[in-house]
Amino acid sequence: MTRVFSGIQPSGVPTLGNYLGAIRNWVPMQDTHESIFCVVDLHAITVWQDPKELARQTREMAAALIACGLDPKRCTLFIQSHVHAHTRLAWIFNCVARMGWLNRMTQFKDKAGKDREAAGTGLYVYPNLMAADILTYHATLVPVGDDQRQHLELANDIAEKFNHDYGVDFFPRIEPMIQGVAARVMSLRDGTKKMSKSDPSDQSRINLTDNHDTIALKIRRAKTDPEPLPDHMSGLEARPEARNLVGILAAITGTMPENVLREHGGKGFGSFKETLVEALVAHLTPISTEMTRLLDDPGALDAQLRLGADRAEAIASPICAKAEEIVGFLPRR
Ligand code: AQP
Q1: Is any atom of ligand 1 closer than 6 Å to the C-beta of 187?
Q2: Which residues of the chain have pLDDT under 70?
Q3: What CATH number did the domain enclosing 128 receive?
Q4: Cβ(64) – ligand 1 distance below 6 Å
Q5: ipTM of this complex prediction, to 2 decimal places
Q6: Atom 10 in ligand 1: which residue has the minimum CA distance?
Q7: Residues 230, 255: one domain?
Q8: Domain contains 203
Q9: Domain tally for the chain?
Q10: Residue 282 main-chain phi, psi, to 5 deg
Q11: What is the pLDDT of residue 315?
Q12: Same domain for 48 and 157?
């Protein structure tokens, strides 16, 4: 059975972008693939996180994943820092990856901002850790949003260079799995920027914990343009905000954007936005209710995460140890 790995940072409340671009696609994979899902706290600290908040958000993210349909009995769900193979292999990959490769990563450029000299080195080597996350499980399929495509190409470059340098055929090739009409959900305030949990503006995103009133307010305030919705997809070109909202409604109602336009084409955004609010509330309310229930019993949640870490460790540790042996590290006897 193909082994799947994916992760999500506990850098805030999961957004509709995380949900539609990634988490929602993970749920059916539990029945068709050997699935490993991880809350990547090591990645989160590549930008500053308040320690108390990080711990709270890590549990909250785990609860969100379970509330969205990940079942710790049918998949391996754990916290990244609980399994040390990730950092051990990441160090080796820091030595394999080339500066030139990392210099091309657009996420680093976006997150580091203008003052690159002040960016943390962890942010720079983030893709090496991501490669280690996947390859320490010999996972070959990685369901992610479109924004992660470049990092996965880099992971393949690292795997190939490791195999070549050490004359082995050890790390497999990774296939990205980028799915659905909402593989990249954009900000509600700027249709050219992706929706992000760490965007300073809460108005730019829908959080999975937002209630009816908050969703309604954010969607009503979402940036649009004065034109009515077009009848055809071609009419959405050069209208990033309109295209984004149409994509969200299509994704959340399980249809294609063409069908949304068939129904709403020619109408203004007022009635369209009301339909979108109702669809979002109907979809997200059961998730936030279940999150609250899970977070009411942190002991039970932590016990599930512990079992997940034990299962993950049993797969990751021997693969990482083999990589260390290939590199020439003397085993501890
Ligand atoms: N806007 C998005 N549309 C579609 N997919 C998205 N993903 C993130 N944003 C969107 C996908 O969510 C998964 C988990 O992402 P992550 O938390 O590991 O990191 P990220 O991509 O950096 O997500 P954020 O929300 O933007 O986090 P911050 O603000 O902390 O950087 C990934 O599969 C990603 O593709």
Answers
A1: no
A2: none
A3: 3.40.50.620
A4: no
A5: 0.97
A6: 17
A7: yes
A8: no
A9: 2
A10: -60, -35
A11: 98
A12: yes
- Cβ atoms within 10 Å, residue 179: 16
Tokens of 172: 């497999």
pLDDT value, residue 1: 85
pTM, two decimal places: 0.95
DSSP 35: E
113 is in an annotated binding site: no
**Same domain, residue pair 14 and 135:** yes
| Ligand 1, atom nearest to 183 Cα | 4
Nearest Cα residue to 146 out of 245, 25, 316, 34: 25
Identify the residue whose C-alpha is closest to ligand 1 atom 29.
198
> Which residues are known catalytic residues?
111, 194, 197
Task: Give the pLDDT of residue 139.
Answer: 98
Range of the domain at 64: 3-183+297-327
Verify whether ligand 1 is closer than 6 Å to residue 151 (CB atom). no
| Ligand 1 probe mutation, 39, 147, 194, 195, most atoms within 8 A of CB | 147
Instruction: Give yes or no: residues 213 and 108 share one domain.
Output: no
Q: How is residue 148 written in tokens?
A: 């992660």
| pLDDT, tens only, 25-57 | 999 999 999 999 999 999 999 999 999 999 999
**Residue of 11, 13, 16, 18 with the most ligand 1 atoms within 8 Å of its CB, for mutation:** 18
The alpha carbon torsion through 207, 252, 150, 36 (nearest 10 deg) reads: 80
Q: Does some domain include residue 189? A: no
Q: Would you say the CB of residue 188 lies under 6 angstroms from ligand 1? A: no
Answer yes or no: do 40 and 131 share one domain.
Answer: yes
Q: How far is the CA of 260 from the centre of ligand 1 (A)?
A: 25
Q: Which amino acid is at 247?
A: G
Residue whose entry in the numeric block shows the structure tokens 């997200």: 284
